[in-house]
Amino acid sequence: xxxxLRYALCAFFAIAAVGAASALTVSVAPAQHLVExxxxxxxxxxxxxxSGCLDGLYDAGFIATDAPARETDRAHWSDATFGxxxxxEGFVDYVVAVFVTWRPSSLKKEVWLATGCDYRIVRVADGKxxxxxxxxxETDGPDLVADPDKxxxxxxxxxxxxCAALIQSASASNGGE
Length: 177
Description:
Rossmann fold, 27% strand, alpha/beta, 6-stranded mixed beta sheet
């Protein structure tokens, strides 16, 4: 017996499977540096930053994942292999290596604010850096101190959206991978 609903559902799942199979996987490898180590004992809002970044990539259609955060200096982060360990085995297409610098707020020392971040996007298949850039943090103020997680999430989301556009461009120029 011909059931149109059955055919429609089969077609839907077939299209969904093909779409999922063609999605690129992006890993975000975060590093952070505290401008004044020991100035405050509370943690930075890096988790909120990363949440926003991953959301920005996911909203653009990528499969997004993250690596464990590292507190390190710029020299270590600048190493071309930073964030690439295990990515080929994990079927990751691109790595976004992010370096966020934090400072304590001048209004409330236990609140960390991002002074800015630098990033580079690396194609895992050949290790080629396809894009680099930076973003400035917001100016210290009462609104940021009131909700530093919201500010960090917003900054991360902006970075995720920017990186998504750059990855889409790099992927298209590389034959759509």
